[in-house]
Amino acid sequence: MILLTLLKYFCAMLRIAIQKSGRLHDESAALLKECGLRFAGADRKLVATVDNFALEILYLRDDDIPQYVADGVADIGIVGENVLYESQINAELKLKLGFGKCRLSLAIKKDTVYDGIKYFDQKNVATSYPNLLAKWATNNSLTIKIHQISGSVEIAPGLGLSDAICDLVSSGSTLISNGLKEAEVILKSEAVLIAHKALNADKQEIFDKLIFRINSVLKAGKHKYILLNAPEKAKNDIINILPGMKSPTIVPLAQEGWCSIHTVIEEDRFWEIIEKLKNAGAEGILVVPIEKMIL
Ligand code: PRT
Ligand code: ZN
User: Please, which residues have CB within 8 angstroms of residue 77's CB and are 6 or more apart in sequence?
Assistant: First the structure.
């Protein structure tokens, strides 16, 4: 035990801060696990050590993460862009992570006639995001009376506390169930990886290895491996449809005049490509998830 503590003291170690519990916790932890890291969960713990990588995990409230990273208590962190920008803290955004997507929006009572952003001039708006709202108002030459509240912002107009709210929206159901409608999106947000401005060389080396793994996981999530059978005579048409990483792998089938074609396609283009492949004569199409993608 003493030896292990001493080893940890002398070996360079990177510290990442992730949310202890809440909307970003599960996907932040899952991303690190998909990077092959083994560590204990956040139950009753503030810090977990990764067994097989020079990384320590700090479990924190999301609002505290930018400051911890700016101060260098944590070297890197995963947090929503909304929290990062609202904090106005100087931490470097390194990578967008593609989860925790939401938008910071202005919403008004559903029966209010809305004819553009001028509506908000001189209005009372309740929000937990006073800095982002004030910046948006200034950029749009509007004067907004901002009422900062820390929770349940969506009930403010119903209580007569404000004319409108500025809050996070994802599905929109909270607005609907409070008799509100979305009027303007002021920020689109997702979880991001942030880093301290000046990592030392040892920490930077560990960080580069981690970023490499994260990129491989994120790329894999956006692609699918596709296998299909095709008549030889349709081969060239099918190859032209496939936007593979390099060129597709082609294997002859036991049945004369047929081959099997394998390649990687982007998930976004999946349905459009599948339709074209079928029309070109492809059969027995298999689509398989990719775990890691190293280019
Ligand atoms: O305890 P801690 O301080 O760590 O967590 P928290 O309670 O402050 O934050 P948490 O866990 O609620 O959210 C963490 C992060 O998730 C946010 O900072 C955003 O980056 C992201 N995120 C994504 C969201 C939402 N979607 C979201 N829908 N955060 C909050 N909401 C809330 C919103 O405030 C509103 O009350 O969900 C409601 C609206 O949801 P819909 O689906 O009804 O539109
Ligand atoms: Zn929070």
Answer: 16, 17, 18, 65, 66, 68, 69, 91, 193, 194, 195
